[in-house]
């Protein structure tokens, strides 16, 4: 069963919390990783790799730059995750 | 078929001594900020680099190597005349031929040793160390001098805000000689040429010569792709090197990764789940990224400052342009 959008966002919140120390409640759909959540380009790579493992999805380097907001990432994951 | 005599070498090899040379001029981030729009805080948070050394005109690749080599030879307790091989890992010696190793060998007073350069980017030291070990075990040379040396300031685009602060200059050297037991483990190494564009010289010298471009060639890289590869793929290689040596992370005393960027080092340590007792080389803070020189320079500093001691078990891993990598477990000299 693929993760729901709600599960994806809460999973991303846990990941961002773990990597950048941002409170989980601050991780909302419209928040920008760099501007609002203080996740810089290198931390973003760590977030992406953690998300790949958690949601069984591949996020190539070329696509990472398009994931500006939490919503972008959640949508990308929902579209590309392998249904279990 | 004529019978060929087998070669007779030492049963095993070890690193016997280490030496380093850092150029006199220390360059703080303030100097870098004269040519890029950035801040000290930004540079430190992205790279952990506070200062680096830049070589003067006199501090050539050869001159820095001779200094480092002299210290390594003295530390090893051998004489220059005993050196049977000189291997220089570098990407920033700007005279294509002859190999700078021959000049260095002559200047240190070695007697007609085998001498050649190795181009394997930031993995150059590991590549050269592996060859040196092979030469000692094969009997082609009893003692081999391995040098990692760079003048990356010559290959830095000071107006590129993504890389201007990264690179530094320096030389690190070790002497590899015979051992009665294994003190350099199996090397896990390789290349991924499909990722050649990830870290590369911007253009070929000939393109610059022909006026295709007006900017002098410099090293450029795709930061995020390099970071992902360096942290997550290289952590696997590091683990393979431990497995190949038959030890676990708990057995390690020291971790000396290529000093590319503090963020890569920190993330690798986390990904590898290294125990807290393992001393981690963080020489990048004051030396910057010196490519092939970074591992021996970091090793020398850990030993000189007492953070590591002779006999410690260290995991060394180099990775960089190619992409290439080399990891092995060694006993520190």
What is the structure about, briefly put?
Chain B: Residues 242-331 form the Beta-ketoacyl-[acyl-carrier-protein] synthase III C-terminal domain. Chain B: Keywords: Acyltransferase, Cytoplasm, Fatty acid biosynthesis, Fatty acid metabolism, Lipid biosynthesis, Lipid metabolism, Multifunctional enzyme, Transferase. The complex is a heterodimer of chains A (84) and B (333). Chain A has 84 residues and is mainly alpha-helical.
Q: What is the topology?
A:
The complex is a heterodimer of chains A (84) and B (333).
Chain A: H1 5-20, H2 41-55, H3 61-64, H4 70-80
Helix pairs in contact in A: 1-2, 1-4
Chain B: E1 12-21, E2 25-28, H1 29-32, H2 40-47, E3 51-54, H3 61-76, E4 83-89, H4 100-108, E5 114-118, H5 124-138, E6 143-151, E7 169-179, E8 188-191, E9 199-201, H6 205-209, E10 219-221, H7 223-245, E11 254-257, H8 262-272, E12 279-280, H9 284-287, H10 294-304, E13 313-320, E14 324-331
Parallel strand pairs in B: 4-5, 4-6, 11-12, 11-13
Antiparallel strand pairs in B: 1-7, 2-3, 6-7, 8-14, 9-10, 13-14
Helix pairs in contact in B: 3-4, 7-8
Q: Radius of gyration of chain A, Cα only, in angstroms? A: 11 Å
The number of E-state strands of chain B comes to 14
- Helix content estimate of chain B: 25-40%
If helices are DSSP runs of H or I spanning 4 or more residues, what is the number of helices of chain B?
A: 10
What's the β-strand tally of chain A? Answer: 0
Q: How confident is the prediction overall: mean pLDDT of chain A?
A: 89
Structural category of chain A: mainly alpha
């Amino acid at each position: 069963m693929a993760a729901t959008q709600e599960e994806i966002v809460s999973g991303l919140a846990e990941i961002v919390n773990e990597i950048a120390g941002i409170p989980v409640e601050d991780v909302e759909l419209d928040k920008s990783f760099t501007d609002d959540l203080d996740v810089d380009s290198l931390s973003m790579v760590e977030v992406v790799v953690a998300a790949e493992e958690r949601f069984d999805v591949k996020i190539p380097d070329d696509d990472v730059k398009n994931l500006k907001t939490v919503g972008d990432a959640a949508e990308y994951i929902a579209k590309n995750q392998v249904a279990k | 078929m004529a019978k060929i005599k087998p070669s007779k070498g030492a049963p095993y090899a070890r690193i016997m001594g280490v030496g380093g040379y850092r150029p006199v001029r220390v360059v703080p981030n303030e100097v870098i900020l004269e040519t890029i729009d950035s801040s000290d805080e930004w540079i430190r948070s992205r790279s952990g680099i506070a200062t680096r050394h830049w070589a003067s005109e006199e501090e050539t690749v050869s001159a820095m190597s001779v200094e480092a080599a002299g210290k390594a030879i003295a530390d090893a307790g051998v004489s220059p005349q005993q050196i049977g091989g000189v291997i220089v890992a570098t990407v920033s010696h700007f005279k294509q031929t002859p190999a700078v190793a021959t000049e260095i060998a002559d200047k240190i007073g070695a007697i007609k040793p085998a001498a050649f350069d190795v181009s394997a980017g930031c993995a150059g030291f590991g590549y050269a160390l592996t060859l040196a070990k092979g030469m000692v075990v094969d009997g082609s040379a009893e003692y081999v001098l391995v040098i990692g040396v760079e003048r990356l300031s010559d290959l830095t685009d000071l107006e590129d805000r993504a890389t201007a602060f990264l690179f530094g200059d320096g030389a690190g050297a070790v002497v590899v000689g015979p051992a009665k037991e294994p003190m350099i483990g199996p090397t896990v190494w390789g290349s991924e040429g499909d990722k050649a564009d990830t870290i590369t010289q911007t253009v070929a010298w000939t393109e610059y010569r022909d006026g295709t471009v007006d900017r002098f060639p410099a090293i450029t890289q795709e930061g995020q792709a390099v970071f992902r590869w360096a942290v997550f793929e290289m952590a696997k290689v590091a683990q393979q090197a431990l497995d190949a040596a038959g030890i676990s992370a708990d057995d390690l005393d020291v971790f000396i990764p290529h000093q590319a960027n503090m963020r890569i080092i920190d993330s690798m340590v986390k990904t590898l789940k290294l125990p807290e007792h393992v001393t981690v080389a963080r020489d990048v803070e004051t030396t910057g990224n010196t490519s092939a020189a970074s591992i021996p320079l970091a090793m020398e500093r850990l030993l000189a400052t007492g953070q590591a001691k002779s006999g410690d078990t260290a995991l060394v891993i180099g990775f960089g342009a190619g992409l290439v990598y080399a990891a092995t477990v060694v006993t520190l000299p």
